[in-house]
Design goal:
Blueprint (H helix, E strand, L loop, with lengths): L15 H28 L4 H9 L18 H14 L1 H20 L2 H13 L4 E4 L15 E5 L2 E12 L6 E7 L8 E7 L5 E3 L13 E12 L3 E2 L5 H37 L1 E2 L2 E2 L4 H29 L5 H26 L10 H11 L6 H13 L5
Parallel strand pairs: 1-4
Antiparallel strand pairs: 2-3, 3-7, 4-5, 5-8, 6-7, 9-10
């Protein structure tokens, strides 16, 4: 029924190179991602071939150093690429965000030797990463994780279970946070574990209400032995590394959320301008016009918020509070906008013949991953009022 093609987002980009990059991403999204998104999500198909294409196109390492195969792009640009990918299919946009998160520890805390050995394949060599922090009994309270890494000579032996791992079972490498010391945050260390390590296995993927094409699974470490040269950073530094990665990762989720919201708005506008009732398009009725106006305003506000946080990051300034605000606002916006899009489409919005219901199901998870929105409110409040009294 929709017969009005959505207009591309009018983006403020810092360079001609960035504009060319967005054009490339839109071309890939329109040719390779969007046409198959609904069918493949319904079938639970993981688009590894698309992620391989993105790697070959230089799009899996955009914010990292070109010396190691990255794209030397500021976060301001990288996040807008994520938004375009997520608008075409969230499984792809979130997949790129998670891969970028998985590369963060090595790219920012690894030794020169580690970076030379591993980063080129991770950033542009076709490898796909996963990030292993959460566990069955430690989600929001990540510092209480129980997976252990015990030193044995020049190696470490990792034992435990990670939970809710995006790309669990299909990743080529895992950035793993494990306990090497006492209780609490100071006893945690980061490791780079190859996906084919002996003793590493993944459970059957979770059955989710949305993002069925993105495997989310528990990952088991049954005495996985890795050499000490795959330890990232100092012993006990792992939790600080994890928090640093999550600040940036929250911006990735914010951008993905705005991508989903934009796709839902585009669908709602196309439907409302094409659907006739009472002899005229339903977009003529003030109630729907105001809904569309509110949806568009919320999206623009979210986009401005995540870009403001990204520019702080690019300038080397603190951005943790703004990242939490962006994640909170953008994902709540995605939930609201996608719900309203279903309402605009009426009965059709509740059917799988139109993508609005998929957008709504996908938006929900963005309020949960990379720290629930309740956790984001705690982070923001701590910046405003200091730590909670004990």
């Amino acid at each position: 029924m929709p017969d009005r093609a959505p207009q591309p987002v009018d983006r403020q980009l810092p360079t001609d190179e960035a504009r060319d990059l967005i054009s490339l991403v839109r071309d890939i999204a329109q040719r390779e991602i969007a046409p198959k998104a609904a069918e493949e999500e319904d079938a639970g198909h993981f688009p590894r071939e698309v992620l391989t294409l993105l790697s070959e196109s230089g799009l899996l390492g955009l914010p990292y150093d070109s010396e190691y195969g990255g794209g030397d792009q500021p976060y301001e640009v990288y996040l807008q690429v994520l938004e375009e990918l997520a608008a075409a299919r969230l499984t792809v946009g979130l997949g790129v965000s998670v891969h970028t998160l998985a590369c963060h520890a090595l790219a920012n805390y690894g030794t020169k030797e580690q970076q030379v050995e591993h980063l080129p394949d991770m950033l542009g060599g076709g490898l796909l990463g996963a990030y292993c922090l959460s566990e069955p009994s430690s989600g929001s309270d990540a510092a209480s994780l129980r997976t252990k890494a015990v030193r044995d000579g020049d190696s470490w032996v990792i034992t435990g279970t990670k939970a809710w791992i995006t790309h669990g079972g299909v990743a080529d490498f895992y950035t793993v946070l494990a306990r090497t010391g006492g209780e609490g945050a100071r006893g945690i260390t980061a490791f780079l574990v190859p996906g084919d390590a002996e003793g590493l296995s993944a459970a059957v993927p979770e059955k989710k209400m949305g993002m069925k094409g993105s495997p989310t699974a528990q990952v088991h470490f049954d005495g996985v032995r890795i050499p000490d040269d795959r330890r990232i950073g100092e012993e006990g530094q792992g939790f600080a590394i994890a928090l640093s990665a999550l600040d940036s990762g929250r911006l990735g989720i914010a951008a993905c959320a705005i991508g989903v919201a934009q796709a839902a708005l585009d669908e709602a506008v196309a439907y409302a301008t094409g659907r006739q009732q009472f002899g005229r398009p339903i977009a003529d009725f003030q109630g729907l016009r105001f809904m569309l106006a509110d949806m568009a305003t919320q999206i623009e506000a979210g986009r401005a918020l995540y870009l403001a946080a990204a520019r702080l990051r690019d300038a080397g300034r603190p951005f943790a509070k703004q990242a939490a605000m962006a994640k909170l606002h953008c994902t709540d916006t995605a939930m609201k906008v996608t719900t309203d899009a279903v309402q605009v489409l009426g009965g059709y919005g509740y059917t799988a013949d139109f993508p609005a219901e998929r957008f709504m199901r996908e938006a929900k998870v963005l309020q949960i991953v990379e720290g629930t929105n309740q956790i984001q409110r705690m982070v923001i409040a701590r910046h405003l009022a200091g730590p909670e009294s004990r």
